[in-house]
Each structure stands twice: as structure tokens, then as C-alpha cells.
């Protein structure tokens, strides 16, 4: 069993709060800081011009229904989704060496199996490590303040990412809060600035096998941290390996179980629609296991295929239903698009424009995702088709401009 450490720096300095070095020389900031690597980023506030709730629906206005019978032929464009970037925050604490093969080996093989699929070619994936021994800091309460492998589309970055994954070895403790905080802090300014590949959707995936053993943060601090990441439009998902069902404080059986804490964190980390239906978003009591976890629970046994399936599921629910409007010939009218979703069996649905206050049509509808009308968003059943059916396609048709 592992206990929560109150002091994790065994040398030279005696300080009132935990200080630990990251792989790149970073130190832990205050508990209110989202950014442990970029002191210039104010994590407590969001720029008033930044839409923290997502693009939303810009309904109304003077848009008219697409006229497929206009005087000249409409021009069709294949819909292009906004990008998806994923940062995997990977636990390599000493307990990841348990089992034969080890937990770390199975989890790493599962990650590589999923990411080897061409379906991930356009997804930018990177790696943050935590829980390893580094230099003179023998406690192992260390974490990456910058990614070991920065997220890059796997069509070009797969080899470099896999090389870093293959170097992972169990060795340290479990500074979970610091690792998540550092990943958010590194990502958030780039998401805000819409710096490619963070100009679409961004997600963090925490892979861990147990309770934190570094730091003095409370369970409430963990939930608040994930909620702050969500406010910065970064979704967070969790994969719990064997060992993730232990108590937050192994010396106190009345303390929250890590499984209940992760279920609550997962529910605060992304839209409820991205989670298993009916999952236990706020387990009570927290000292008991969740009735149905909101995260990928592999505490009873982890397999390569199970990890691969979890990552593919996260890819699907994280993939956007927001599409970039085509750069059309000036003779075509991009203000009155026709939007069609075709499922993998060839079933084609003509989506109407969403109308404020009206119930969603059976097949879904579309609306503008931004005031400038550079992106459109599919909602309702059409979005579910886009996310879950890898063979589905979206077409955007533009009519001729009216004379």
C-alpha cells in the first residue's frame, strides 16, 4: 500500500510547501496556478474575448435555406474537421512494475496499438511523463513541465512518439496533481492562441495505477484542477489500471477511494455526453467505489486490447462535429450552405439549419460555430454519426450567388 507523502524533497532546503523538480527543471507553483511552466499565464482568469464555453450555436440572422435548384449547379466540398490534439500523461511510478508483464508494459503496448491505426494519422498526440527518479531528487516526485514528445500529427510524429514511449520505466512516486497541472499549463496558452495543432479540440488522457503519493492537495483540489482545465476548453479523460481502487490516503480507510475520485474528476473534465450513460458523476460516500465509473476502469485487469479500445473511444468522443467552411470560388455563396451527413452504409441525411427554440430534428441540424461564419457545427444525431462512424462523411454544398 502507498501512503500520501507530506514531504518529498529530502535534501538541502526546508520549505513550507512541496517543491519538486520536473524533467525540464520546473518547480511546482501555488495550488491556484494552472501553469507550472509558464509564469506569464494567468490561470485564474480567462481573457474576456475567449469563449470558454465553446463555440456554441449562433442561430437566427438572415440566413436562408440552401437552394439546391438554383440557376447554376452547386459545388460540393468534402467536410474537413477542425484538428484534434491529445496529450497522454503517463504514470511511470514504481508500482507500474507490478505484474508479469508489468502494468507499464501492457499499458504502453495498448497505447502503441491504438496509435498505430491509420485512423489516428491526423490526430496530434504527445507525451508527458510523471513519477520517475531524476538526478538528485531520489523521491521520484517528478513530472514533465514540457512534453517529452510534443503533440504532432501521427502521420509524421508516430516514430518519435513511440521511441519516447519505449523508454518509459517504472521508478518513482505519484505526483498526479503536479503532472496534470503542468500539462494544462503548457497546453492552455497554445489553445487560447489557437496555435496549430491546438486550433481545434484538445484533450488530456491520464494513465495511472493508483492514488497520489506526492503533494498535500485534497480531493477537492483535484476536482477543481480538472474543472479549471475544462474551463480552458481542454477535455480530460482517465484510464485507471490495477491499483487505482486504493484509498487516497492508505492509512485512512474513510478517505476517498481513488476510483471514486477519478469518477468525479472525469465527470468534471468533459461533457457528460462523452461519458458512459448513467455513470456515477458524484459518488457518495467517496470512500466506497462508484456504482458505474465515469472513467475507463481496468482495476480488475488490464489488457493491451482494453487500453487500445479506450484510446480509440476517446478519439471518437473527442473528435469534433465542427467543420471548416471551404474557401469557395467567389461565384458561390458560402452564406447558404447545404450540409449532408452520409453514414458508413451510404445513408444520406440532408441537415436543416438549426432554429433557436425548436426541438432538434430527428437527424440533427447544423449551425454556424462562430460569428464570422468560417466554421459550422453539426448537432444532434448527425454529430453522433460523425463521431461514432469512422466511415461516415460530411459534404458541404455551396449554391451560386443569387443574381
Report the count of strand segments. Answer: 14
Arithmetic mean of pLDDT: 84
Helix content: 10-25%
Radius of gyration: 23 Å
Class per helix and strand makeup: alpha/beta
Explain this structure to me?
A 6-stranded mixed β-sheet has the order 5-4-3-6-7-8, sandwiched between helices. The chain has a 4-stranded antiparallel β-sheet with strand order 1-14-10-11, covered by helices on one side. It is elongated and about 75 Å long. It is built from 7 helices and 14 strands. It is α/β, with parallel strands linked by helices and 403 residues long. The N and C termini lie far apart (76 Å). The chain has 2 domains: 75-81 and 321-398, no CATH class; 84-318, Rossmann fold. The chain has helices at residues 103-115, 154-165, 176-193, 219-231, 258-269, 304-318, 381-388, and strands at 75-78, 80-81, 84-91, 124-130, 149-153, 201-208, 234-240, 296-297, 322-324, 338-342, 348-351, 365-368, 375-379, 393-398.
Amino acid at each position: 500500500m502507498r501512503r500520501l507523502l507530506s514531504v518529498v524533497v529530502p535534501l538541502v532546503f526546508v520549505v513550507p510547501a512541496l517543491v519538486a523538480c520536473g524533467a525540464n527543471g520546473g518547480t511546482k507553483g501555488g495550488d491556484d496556478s494552472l501553469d507550472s511552466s509558464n509564469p506569464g499565464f494567468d490561470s485564474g482568469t480567462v481573457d474576456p474575448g475567449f469563449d470558454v464555453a465553446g463555440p456554441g450555436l449562433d442561430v437566427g440572422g438572415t440566413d436562408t435555406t440552401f437552394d439546391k435548384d438554383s440557376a447554376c449547379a452547386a459545388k460540393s466540398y468534402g467536410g474537413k474537421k477542425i484538428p484534434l490534439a491529445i496529450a497522454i500523461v503517463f504514470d511511470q511510478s514504481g508500482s507500474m512494475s507490478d505484474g508479469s508483464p508489468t502494468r507499464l508494459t501492457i499499458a504502453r503496448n495498448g497505447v502503441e496499438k491504438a496509435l498505430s491505426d491509420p485512423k489516428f494519422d491526423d490526430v496530434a498526440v504527445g507525451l508527458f511523463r510523471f513519477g520517475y527518479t531524476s538526478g538528485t531528487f531520489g523521491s521520484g516526485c517528478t513530472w514533465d513541465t514540457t512534453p517529452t514528445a510534443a503533440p504532432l500529427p501521427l502521420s509524421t510524429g508516430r516514430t518519435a512518439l513511440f521511441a519516447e514511449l519505449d523508454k518509459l520505466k517504472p521508478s518513482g512516486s505519484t505526483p498526479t496533481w503536479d503532472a496534470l497541472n503542468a500539462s494544462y499549463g503548457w497546453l492552455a496558452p497554445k489553445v487560447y492562441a489557437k496555435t496549430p495543432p491546438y486550433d481545434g479540440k484538445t484533450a488530456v488522457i491520464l494513465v495511472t495505477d493508483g492514488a497520489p503519493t506526492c503533494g498535500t492537495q485534497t480531493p477537492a483540489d483535484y476536482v477543481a484542477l480538472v474543472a479549471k482545465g475544462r474551463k480552458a476548453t481542454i477535455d480530460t479523460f482517465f484510464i485507471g489500471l490495477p491499483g487505482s481502487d486504493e484509498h487516497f490516503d492508505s492509512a485512512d480507510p474513510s478517505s476517498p477511494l481513488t476510483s471514486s475520485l477519478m469518477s468525479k474528476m472525469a465527470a468534471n473534465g468533459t461533457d457528460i455526453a462523452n461519458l458512459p450513460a448513467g455513470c456515477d458523476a458524484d459518488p457518495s460516500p467517496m470512500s466506497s467505489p462508484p456504482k458505474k465509473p465515469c472513467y475507463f476502469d481496468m482495476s480488475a485487469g488490464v489488457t493491451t486490447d482494453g487500453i487500445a479500445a479506450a484510446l480509440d473511444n476517446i478519439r471518437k468522443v473527442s473528435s469534433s462535429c465542427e467543420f471548416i467552411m471551404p474557401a469557395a470560388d467567389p461565384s458561390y455563396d458560402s452564406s447558404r450552405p447545404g450540409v449532408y451527413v452520409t453514414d458508413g452504409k451510404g445513408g444520406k441525411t440532408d441537415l436543416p439549419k438549426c432554429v433557436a427554440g425548436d426541438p432538434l430534428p430527428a437527424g440533427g441540424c447544423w449551425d454556424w460555430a462562430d460569428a464570422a461564419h468560417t466554421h459550422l457545427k453539426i448537432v444532434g444525431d448527425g454529430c453522433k454519426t460523425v463521431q461514432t462512424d469512422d466511415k461516415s462523411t460530411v459534404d458541404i454544398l455551396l449554391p451560386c450567388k443569387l443574381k
